[in-house]
Amino acid sequence: MGKSARRSMRNGCTKLIRYVLNEPTGERGFWGMMFDLSRSGFCMGTNHRLSEGQEIMIKSPLALDAQRAVVRWSEKVNDSLFKVGLEMSVHEASPR
User: Fold this and answer.
1) What angle do CA 88, 61, 20 make, to 5 degrees?
2) pTM
3) Burial of 58 per CB tally in 10 Å (0-12, 13-18, 19+)
């Protein structure tokens, strides 16, 4: 995604984050390294391939309201690293 297509300015950062995938067999946990962060999303490196449209749940505390994110793009950097662009996804609480 080109910088002109971004909705929010990105700020460089380096933060280790833990995330999980929602899968029929249960939650699987992974680690990623965040490279930049904005109000609407972030970029991270991970050794797990993520697909466009896939949702992850972030288990590390972030300075954002949302703890879910949707993969917007993913590119293979080398045999053990993927660079992933994620958009934060805010879900309303379900009624009780």
Assistant:
1) 65
2) 0.74
3) buried
Lowest-confidence range among 21-25, 46-50, 68-72? 21-25
> Is 51 buried (19+), middle (13-18) or exposed (0-12) by CB count in 10 A?
exposed
- Pick from 50, 92, 96: nearest CA to 73: 50
Query: Is 5 in a helix, a strand, or coil?
Result: helix
Between the ranges 17-26, 33-42, 60-69, 76-85, where is the mean pLDDT highest?
76-85
What is the DSSP secondary-structure string of 14-40? EEEEEEEEEETTEEEEEEEEEEEE-SS
State the pLDDT at residue 88.
86
